[in-house]
């Protein structure tokens, strides 16, 4: 019987999705599920949801609940982490600063926002890992917290914990591309390699044949593709075309491949967001939805409260967009069922023309013996070159955060492709100083 610990159980939707996905597998219903969150109200809600779900469906899974992470780690086989250290307040404050300087930001990409999110996330997650080293040293940590590449890099270099970073993008983005060419998802084979939110579809096949020519054909007339998607009723098609695919059209045309980045790709490169005319050309809005995120989360909490106080029957819905991939890994290890997935792991010669030791997103095989990352070899040189521009930012940010060196964090911002293309050195220094002020409570001991 496995013990699964979910740290950040009260998080917006993810915790409930993960709980539901776990109980959707009969082989995991003998498990113990320990829910952890420092927010008592959210932890209580997540616990009430899990308890009611298990009772309604007559499952045997044991539910534990605590704000003490060390207590929950005892006997753990798997630790799933999905947290936002500091909550929304510092992120939104830093985002306001970056907007003032003309640099749009997202919470889980690179740039000023990603680096400062890592500044808050990495120390909190390393503390959990150090507790795991003492309490459950053989447990597998599955990290969903962003920025994944920087967090898992810190885990690899500063702890001994087995870990993998997970992200739904490789699956979700390719499924959208498959819908554009009219291919059912179950007839598509694909493979990605690169960085989290910036990996490349090296293989995209339909019924064994290269599907890239079909995608190029569809991308040659986006207006016709948009009309076709509307006619077919593809959910979100027009919006996705406006926000995402003008970027991927450019990537395919100029570099020969599309990426798993979705909307994130605009933050990794200097080509798309640095001037108003470029925003218009590529149909890129601001990320104003982020300002509404706290309200959305509160609305979701109120909805859950109503459901818990009523006779609402919680359904067992498998294959959620994000949490399913963690559960598939646990199921594969527990049952020995072979699984092919994609994970963010240490680059021990897996991608030979990216920095050894960085974190790369590659195909992984999973079985009862654990996770086995697959050798990729060289990326196409143009793809590797673009990835390298971001690896340097990640490395300096990780070193600066763990070594408590503000200058290395500043150097990470100075090297960020979009930030450095938009601002002068003096402007970046001023912006960083204002952001450090927002995060001053996280800077104790920094030099």
3D structure, described in words:
- With 447 residues, the protein is an alpha/beta fold.
- It has a domain at 170-286.
- Helices cover 50% and strands 15% of the residues.
- The chain has 18 helices and twelve strands.
- It has helices at residues 14-23, 40-57, 69-73, 88-100, 111-135, 148-158, 169-181, 212-219, 222-232, 237-255, 265-268, 276-281, 293-308, 324-335, 381-402, 406-415, 417-422, 425-438, and strands at residues 3-7, 32-36, 62-66, 78-81, 140-143, 162-165, 188-195, 198-206, 209-210, 339-346, 359-367, 370-373.
- The strands form three sheets. A six-stranded parallel sheet has the order 3-2-1-4-5-6, with helices on both faces. Strands 7-8-9 form a three-stranded antiparallel sheet.
- Helix 5 packs parallel to helix 6 and helix 15 (381-402) runs antiparallel to helix 16.
- The radius of gyration is 22 Å and the shape is globular.
- The chain starts with a strand and ends in a 9-residue tail after the last helix.
């Amino acid at each position: 019987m496995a013990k699964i610990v979910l740290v950040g159980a009260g998080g917006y939707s993810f915790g409930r999705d993960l709980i539901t996905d776990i109980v959707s597998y009969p082989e995991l219903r003998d498990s113990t599920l320990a829910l952890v969150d420092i927010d008592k109200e959210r932890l209580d809600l997540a616990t009430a949801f899990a308890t009611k779900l298990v009772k309604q469906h007559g499952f045997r899974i044991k539910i534990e609940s605590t704000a003490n992470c060390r207590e929950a780690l005892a006997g753990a086989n798997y630790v799933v982490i999905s947290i936002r250290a500091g909550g929304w307040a510092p992120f939104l404050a830093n985002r306001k600063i970056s907007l003032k300087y003309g640099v749009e930001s997202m919470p889980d990409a690179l740039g000023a926002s990603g680096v400062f999110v890592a500044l808050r996330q990495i120390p909190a997650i390393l503390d959990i890992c150090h507790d795991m080293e003492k309490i459950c040293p053989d447990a597998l940590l599955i990290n969903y917290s962003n920025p994944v590449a920087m967090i898992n890099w810190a885990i690899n270099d500063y702890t001994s914990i087995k870990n993998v970073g997970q992200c739904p993008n490789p699956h979700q983005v390719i499924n959208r591309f498959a819908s554009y060419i009219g291919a059912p998802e179950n007839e598509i084979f694909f493979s990605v390699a690169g960085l989290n939110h910036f990996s490349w579809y090296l293989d995209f096949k339909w019924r064994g044949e290269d599907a890239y020519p079909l995608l190029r054909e569809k991308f040659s007339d986006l207006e016709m593709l948009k009309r076709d998607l509307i006619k077919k009723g593809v959910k979100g098609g027009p919006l996705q075309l406006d926000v995402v695919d003008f970027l991927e059209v450019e990537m395919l045309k100029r570099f020969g491949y599309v990426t798993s980045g979705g909307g994130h790709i605009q933050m990794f490169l200097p080509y798309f967001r640095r001037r108003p005319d470029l925003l218009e050309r590529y149909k890129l809005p601001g990320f104003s939805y982020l300002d509404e995120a706290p309200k959305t989360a509160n609305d979701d909490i109120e909805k859950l409260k109503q459901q818990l106080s009523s006779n609402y029957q919680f359904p067992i819905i498998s294959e959620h967009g994000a949490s399913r991939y963690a559960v598939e890994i646990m199921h594969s290890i527990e049952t020995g069922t072979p699984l092919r997935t994609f994970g963010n792991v240490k680059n021990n010669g897996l991608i030979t023309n990216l920095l050894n030791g960085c974190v790369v997103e590659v195909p992984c095989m999973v079985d009862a013996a654990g996770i086995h990352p697959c050798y990729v070899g060289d990326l196409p040189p143009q793809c590797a070159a673009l990835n390298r521009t971001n690896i340097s930012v990640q490395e300096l940010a990780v070193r600066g955060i763990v070594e408590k060196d503000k200058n290395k964090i500043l150097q990470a911002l100075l090297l960020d492709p979009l930030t450095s293309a938009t601002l002068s050195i003096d402007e970046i220094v001023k912006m960083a100083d204002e952001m450090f002020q927002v995060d001053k409570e996280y800077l104790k001991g920094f030099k």
